[in-house]
Design a protein that fits this description.
single chain; 17% helix; globular
Length: 151
């Protein structure tokens, strides 16, 4: 196993989330969790946000590539962590390294690192109750072919 190089993510410890959005996330009242959690592009670079209530520390680990690791800052006592990665501009595949309050380390994939499986039009029609081919759209997207990207 290669040793990952750890990079700090900057000095920002203050959350980039507006307080009402953070509270909606914590109360499970947020309609689009993918817009908050996971990796996102920002004007400064990349931002990875995870919600891990039982974690004491979190690192974002690049899968493949150089094997870099980025420290995430705990921005809410309830377990919201943010890693601001200013030297990167393009999204990359990653895992999360978690250290719990007992010092036990574990790794997992971030469920929010995978983009939604249905296109927004499919989601709208499904919620409206008028999508008559939802299984075909889901099957098509399961293989990585998204509307507007693939055939």
């Amino acid at each position: 196993m290669a040793i990952a190089l750890t990079r700090t993510t900057g000095h920002r410890v203050k959350s980039t989330l507006e307080p009402q959005v953070a509270q909606a996330l914590l109360r499970a009242e947020l309609g689009d969790v993918f817009s908050i959690l996971g990796m996102h592009t920002t004007a400064e670079g990349l931002l990875v946000r995870v919600f891990l209530p039982d974690a004491a520390a979190v690192r974002i680990l690049e899968r493949g590539g150089e094997g870099l690791a980025y420290e995430a800052n705990k921005t809410h006592s309830e377990g919201i962590f943010e890693a601001s990665i200013v030297e990167r501009r393009e999204l990359f595949s990653y895992e999360i390294e978690i250290v719990d309050h007992l010092g036990v380390e574990s790794r997992c994939r971030d469920p929010y690192s995978f983009w939604p499986q249905l296109a927004s039009k499919d989601q709208y029609l499904f919620n409206e109750g008028t999508h008559h081919r939802a299984s075909a759209a889901r099957r098509r997207n399961r293989w990585g072919v998204f509307r507007g990207v693939g055939p």
